[in-house]
Amino acid sequence: MKLELGYVFIKDIQFAEHSKVENGTLYVNKDEVKALILEEQNFKSAEIELARPGESIRIMPVKDVIEPRVKVEGAGGIFPGMLNKVETVGSGKTNVLKGAAVVTTGKIVGFQEGIIDMDGSGAEYTPFSKLNNLVAVCEPIDGLKQHEHEKALRFAGYKVAAYLGELARTLTPDEVHTFETPNLVEGIKLYPELPRVAYVLMLQSQGLMHDTYVYGVDAKQSLTTMIYPTEIFDGAIVSGNCVSACDKNTTYHHLNNPVIHDLFEEHGKTLNFVGVIITNENVYLADKERSSNWSAKLAELLGVDGVVISQEGFGNPDTDLIMNCKKIEAKGIKTVIITDEYAGRDGSSQSLADADASADAVVTGGNANEVIELPAMDKVIGYADVADIIAGGFDGSLHKDGSITAELQVITGATNEMGFNKLSAR
Predict the structure, then answer these.
(1) Does the pLDDT of residue 339 top 90, yes or no?
(2) How many Cα atoms within 13 Å fall on the side-chain side of residue 316?
(3) Structure pTM?
C-alpha cells in the first residue's frame, strides 16, 4: 500500500469572507464553520476563535486537536467510518494543511480535558502552541448526557477539519512525502540483512469516555489486529478520549504518529519496518490477557526481531503495557516501550503501576506529576475555572490573577506516549 502525503504549509490563519488558502495563509469564513457545527442539534451555540503561535491566549478545556486533511486520489475519504464510508484508506494521495489545526472546547465533558497555552512557559510543554489553531467553542443544549456531548463534540471537530482540509484539494503541495508498505511476501524478501521490526500501537479503550475508534468501531469491541501504517495517516484511527491531557493521543497524534514516521525513515537503512499491530487497553483481566496474547501471537506470526510498543494513559493501562512487553519478549522478540511516568511531585515514587524485568528498554515522555506554574494570559478561550477540577489541577490551582499552579498533566500532549512531545532526557 502506497500513500503520498502532500504538505501545504500554513503560516497564518485569518477570518475572511471566503474560506481559502492563499500564500500560506488559511482564510476562514467564520459563519460557515458555525453553521456546520450547529447542524448538530445537541449544540445550542458555537463560537469560532483563532489562536496563533506567540499570542497570549490560553485554550481550555481542550477536548481534541485535529489536523485538516483531504483525500485527493485513491479509495475512501478522511475519517472513514466517521464522516465517510467504511472504505479502506491509506493509498493514493492526501493533502495536509501542515501547521494548522482544529481545537475543540466548550463546557467540560469529563474531568480530564487539558490546556494549550500559545505563549509563556506553558507553550513550551505542548507542540500545539506552534500551530495556527481554529478553536471551536461548542455549547451543549441543557441536560445533554455526557456521552452524547462527547460524541457531538467529537464529530464537530471532524467536520470542521474536513471542511478546512477540502480547501487543499486542488492545491499543489509545498512538499510531498511518500510512504509504502509491501505485502508480507514481498516484505520478507526486502532487506534480509536488516532486523524486522513491527509497531504495537495500544489504543485507549477502557470505556466511560475513554475510547478510540478504528474505522468507526470502538476499539474495545475488537480483538488485536493489524493495519497498514498509511491507513492511520488517513484518519482510520481517531480519538474519543477524555483521559488525562498530558498523555492523551489526540486525533492529531494519530494522524502524525511519530513512531510510524520514524520507522518509515529508518526502513531500509537500519531496519525493515513490517507493519502495525493495534491492540486495545482493557478494564477486566480476562480482556487484558486475551488482547496481549494476540499481540504476542501476531508479532510471532510476522517473524519480527523487535517491536516498539506505545501506550496511552496511565495506571490501569500500565498492566496492558507490561503484559504486551512480557509476552512478546517471551517469544524471543526484543521490545522497546514508550510510556510516561507518574512518579510523584518530587519524582521519587514508582513511575508505573506495573513492571517486569523484561521491560528493560524504556522511553519516557516525562513525569506528569511535576508541578508547574503557568502565567496569566491576556485571553482565555473556553473556561478557566475548570483549572481546579481537571486531572492535574486541585483546589486553588487557579489564582485570582489568572495564573495557574498545577501538575504537568493538565497540559495537552505534554508527556505524550508516542513521543510527540518536547520533553527529553539523556
Answers:
(1) yes
(2) 16
(3) 0.96
